[in-house]
Amino acid sequence: MTAPTIGRLRVDGATLHHEVRGQGPLLLLIPGGTGGTASLTGIADDLAAEYTVATYDPRGISRSTLDDPDAEQHVAEHADDALRLLDLLSPGEPARVFGSSSGAIAALHLLLTRPERLERVVAHEPPVVEVLPDAAEHRALVARVEETFRTRGLMPAMAVFAAGLSKDEDPDTGASKSEVELPPQAAARAEQTLAGLPYFIGRIAPAFMSYTPDLHRLETLSDRLVLAGGRESIGELPYRPAAFLAERLGTELQHFPGGHVGLTTHPTEFGEALRKAFRG
């Protein structure tokens, strides 16, 4: 395993930490949640045998610092960050992009606004709940999470959020019945994950889960888009928008190993599924 080349990129309102591995056509990986670049290491090292793999910490996460720590977050701004990295690493050449969760929402917006810069996008469980028929229910969930965070603090807010996302949470323990033991390298990142949760719950989740993609425009770009969901998260809230969009666009929903965080729990198998998705 070769150590990545590490860089810093100034963008509007933030400085992005990014890492580059391998050689070949550019593949940009956009993480979701609070894991940042570290959450993608398992698949990035494997994919670097075939691609120049770029990963980064989204603004406000881990080593990507905000000029204003209290700044509101917007999907368009995060998508523009991804574009700036493409311009830096693959100027003028269409690239492949993978996004997971909130990162998949940024990838969708990038496809909608700058399709000429993208050859193919794989979006894994983008929680664009506004496209669902019961969107009002999920809007209310986000409001409950925000109110709980404001009045009772982080962990109660996380419990409300987890209950709203999962189809099989154990009401006695608050744990998902589909949880699996994380690999050691993933478990070691727990401190980083916890450190980023207030920012994620307070800024990212409300902004990203209120985002509505332009479905008519997305239909015209569906030949460049692969929608994916976890085999173990069928029926859960983050899975449902991917399934809805695939049906709406008339494309096949790809099923990847694991659940919503399959890239962390099943990195080898997930990387192979991603490789196949980009090969078409």
Automatic annotation (TrEMBL):
UniProt keyword annotations, A-Z: Hydrolase
Domain AB hydrolase-1: 25-136
This protein's record includes keyword Hydrolase: yes
GO-annotated biological processes: glycerolipid catabolic process
MF-aspect GO terms: triacylglycerol lipase activity
Highest rank taxon of the organism: Bacteria
Record-linked SUPFAM superfamilies: alpha/beta-Hydrolases
Gene3D superfamilies: alpha/beta hydrolase
PANTHER family for this protein: AB HYDROLASE-1 DOMAIN-CONTAINING PROTEIN, HYDROLASE, ALPHA/BETA FOLD FAMILY PROTEIN
Protein name: Hydrolase
UniProt organism field: Streptomyces phaeofaciens
